[in-house]
Amino acid sequence: MGVDLHGLNFLRYAKTKQPLGSVITIGRQGLHVIEPLVKEIFQTGASYKNQTYCEELLTKYMGATGVESVDHSNFEGASHVHDMNQPLPSDLAGRFDTVFDGGCLEHIYNAPQALKNCSLLCKPGGQISHVLPGNNFCGHGFWQFSPELFFSLYSEGNGYADTQVFMADLYNTRQWYQVKKPANGVRVNVMSSNPLYVMVRTVRVGTEFSHDHVQQSDYEFEWNGSNNHHLTEPQNESAVKRQLKKILLIYRLMSPIYHFYLKLKNSEGLNRKNPGLSLVSVKNLIAPTSRA
Q1: Cα gap 33→78, rounded to integer Å
Q2: How far apart are CA 200 and CA 216, in angstroms?
């Protein structure tokens, strides 16, 4: 668990939305950004030395009023020892302006309870941020996460606002891809050859929130009586491919060639085969003090 350059920049982006205030991290977060780069980003001066964990960086250079952490054990010196598989102790509820999960929930079996605990930790009006494994992290933890989950979970109906989801190519720290919210029964599928983070920011609006209504949007669209079944077809499947599928012999002959073409085309992470994503510059998002 730790704050790498994507995680640091996502915290900087969250700070442009509202002050970090009192922060709690899910798991004690190490600092995994090289010292010269930290110096350059924050203009720290020559005497700056990276600490093992992120607390000093967030308080001294990012304006956090305090940083605490919660973890399953005290092996890294977390402020609070609690198993996030279990309901949150009442004395931690509603205490923090920013809840930051920089890569912890994928290691927690009871992900719904852990997500609920994140919301319970957050003050009304506070923000919740996640930087979690998306594609190509199989074996890293128990889970890889989809943007669809967070759009459905952190909905206005459930008591949240300003929910944004980004995908980040692990090997490209200069650009992110903002995910369009799924609508009208159309899924937002994401394909890549490189590991991806899914990065989420939302605001817990009031004193009440709910995690009772979390359903995949395209199925809800069907359940609500729409007969437009064509809308649920994958966005990344061309009309030509759909027609070829109807001619089985041609499809069987052409399919290996087509997939070889996709393999070559997808050799550099994310690309235009993902129409649900919009390319954004990290530098522009976190300007003016930016280095992506």
Answers
A1: 20
A2: 17
Work out the percent of the chain whose per-residue pLDDT is above 90.
73
**pLDDT for 290 beyond 50:** no
Token pair 């009309």 is found at 239
Measured distance CA(100)–CA(69) in Å, rounded: 9
Which pair of tokens denotes residue 112? 């719904």
Please report the pLDDT score of residue 14 as a whole number.
98
CA distances from 271 to 9, 52, 277 (A): 22, 35, 9
Amino acid at 88: L
- Are 97 and 69 a contacting pair, CB within 8 Å? no
Amino acid found at 16: T
Q: Is the pLDDT of residue 157 over 90?
A: yes
Helix, strand or coil, per DSSP, at residue 245? helix
For the chain, how are helix, strand and coil distributed in percent, rounded to 5? 35, 25, 45
What are the DSSP E strand ranges found in the chain? 2-3, 22-26, 30-31, 66-71, 80-81, 96-101, 122-133, 160-169, 175-179, 196-204, 277-281
What structural domains and CATH numbers belong to the chain?
A: 2-219+275-285 (3.40.50.150), 237-265 (no CATH)
Residues 6 or more apart whose Cβ sits within 8 Å of residue 107: 141, 142
Tokens of 266: 């997808």
What predicted TM-score, i.e. pTM, was given to this entire model?
0.85
Question: What band does 46 get if pLDDT is binned at 50, 70 and 90?
Answer: very high
- Choose between 114 and 239: higher pLDDT: 114
d(CA 154, CA 162): 9
Instruction: Give the pLDDT confidence of 94-142 residue by residue, as tens digits.
Output: 999 999 999 999 999 999 999 999 999 999 999 999 999 999 999 999 9
